[in-house]
């Protein structure tokens, strides 16, 4: 007869708590720990008093603000928002945000300090464009007529098409 060893509930509780705070659902935690979602809920309540937490994962923050994850990370790097908790598991960095982060981002978005060209947040010291590349791209056709602009764009399109055909032909050989 084989003895089945039950997982240590203290270890399960800390792992479940960390996963829950990273935004995992009870079902995802249960699947990872080979337990039911009801048992995970019971463990969380038993050890921490609640299976819910007020913090938002990056995914939850993203969905509430209707922004992409890279956009959330840009706001984080620009120090518009700061995470309430941060930890690293292997190569993955987990960030948890307070509900006030939603208000901060909304206030920031209402101020309108974004690059005229790409829409990224403006770094300190910049007024219209976030980088020299955006400035140059925006001013590329500044003194050209619409006909000259169309002619240039058509030649760029033809050049890219020729490059694509050449790369495809080289790959076939």
Main traits of this protein?
elongated, mainly alpha, 55% helix, single chain, 8 helices, Multidrug-efflux Transporter Regulator, Chain: A, Domain 2, 3 strands, 173 residues
Structural domain count: 2
- The CATH architecture of the largest domain would be Orthogonal Bundle
Task: Report the structural category.
Answer: mainly alpha
CATH topology of the largest domain: Multidrug-efflux Transporter Regulator, Chain: A, Domain 2
Detailed description of the structure:
This protein is mainly alpha-helical and 173 residues long. The protein folds into two domains: 9-111, Multidrug-efflux Transporter Regulator, Chain: A, Domain 2 (Orthogonal Bundle); 141-172. It is 55% helix and 8% strand. It has eight helices and three strands. The chain has helices spanning 9-21, 26-33, 37-48, 58-65, 69-77, 100-111, 132-138, 146-172; strands at residues 56-57, 85-89, 92-97. It has a three-stranded antiparallel beta sheet. Helix 1 (9-21) crosses helix 2, helix 1 packs across helix 3 (37-48) and helix 2 (26-33) packs across helix 3 (37-48). It is elongated. The termini are far apart.
Summary of the model, kept short:
This protein is mainly alpha-helical and 173 residues long. It has helices at 9-21, 26-33, 37-48, 58-65, 69-77, 100-111, 132-138, 146-172; strands at 56-57, 85-89, 92-97.
Topology:
Elements lengths: L8 H13 L4 H8 L3 H12 L7 E2 H8 L3 H9 L7 E5 L2 E6 L2 H12 L20 H7 L7 H27 L1
Antiparallel strand pairs: 1-3, 2-3
